[in-house]
Amino acid sequence: MATINKKYPDAAVHLGNTPWGNFTALRYLLKTDAAGKVVGGDVNAAPAVNDVINIGHLPAGFRFVDSEVVVGTGMTATLTGDLGFAYKDGVNDAAVAQDADYFGAGLALATAARLRNATSNPSLVLPKDAHLTLTVKTVANAKASEIEVVIFGIAEGVK
Q1: pLDDT value at residue 130
Q2: CA–CA separation, 79 vs 76, rounded Å?
Q3: Cβ(23)–Cβ(17) below 8 Å
Q4: Nearest Cα to Cα of residue 30 among 124, 119, 141
Q5: Residue 91 domain flag
C-alpha cells in the first residue's frame, strides 16, 4: 500500500470569523493522467488497490457539515473509493478519531456522477490539521480522470 501526496494542495483558504458568517466550502481537484497517475503527485505510479491519496489540507478548527464528490471524468471501470481524513502528524485523537471513510465508503468513481454525502456520521470539529484522503478500492486506476471534492463546514477554531 502506497501513500500518494499531491504536491500542491488546492484548499489554501485561511479561515476566520466574519460578521456575515463562517460557513465555508473547501474545494479540491484530483486529476489523473492517461496512465492513471495522480497529476501533481509525488509518486510516479498509478494508484493501486488500498493506496491512499492525500488530496489536500483540512484545517484544524473546521467543523464538517457535508461533502460532495463530482466525478467529471471517471477512473477505471468498477473503481470505488473511500473518502475520509487522517491527521497530518500521524497521531490519532481519542476524542475525534481519524476516519478513512467519514465522507463515504465504496464511492463509485468510474462513471460521471454527483455523489452527496449519505453517511450517518455526526458533524465534528477537527482538533488538528488533517489530510483529506481517498483510498482506492476494487481495482487500480489506469486512465485519465477528473474528480472534484467539496467539503462544506463551519470555521469554529480550535478549542
Answers
A1: 97
A2: 6
A3: no
A4: 141
A5: yes
Q: Name the stretches of the chain with pLDDT < 70.
A: 8-21
**HSE of 30, CA atoms in CB hemisphere, 13 A:** 33
Q: Determine the residue type at 82.
A: D
Query: Does residue 11 belong to any structural domain of this protein?
Result: no
- The answer to whether residue 89 is domain-embedded is yes
pTM of full prediction above 0.90:
no
Number of domains in the chain: 1
Instruction: Dihedral sign for Cα 106, 70, 68, 7, please.
Output: positive
CA distance 89 to 40: 22
Strands (E), 44-129: 52-58, 62-73, 80-87, 99-108, 113-116
Place of cell 473509493: 81
Rounded to whole angstroms, the Cα distance separating 136 from 119 reads 18
Cβ-proximal residues to 122 (8 Å cutoff; 6+ apart), any chain: none
Cα 85 to chain centroid, rounded: 7
Which residue range is the domain that position 82 belongs to?
A: 22-155
CATH number at residue 111: 2.60.120
Compute the Cα dihedral for 117, 11, 56, 156 and give only its sign: negative
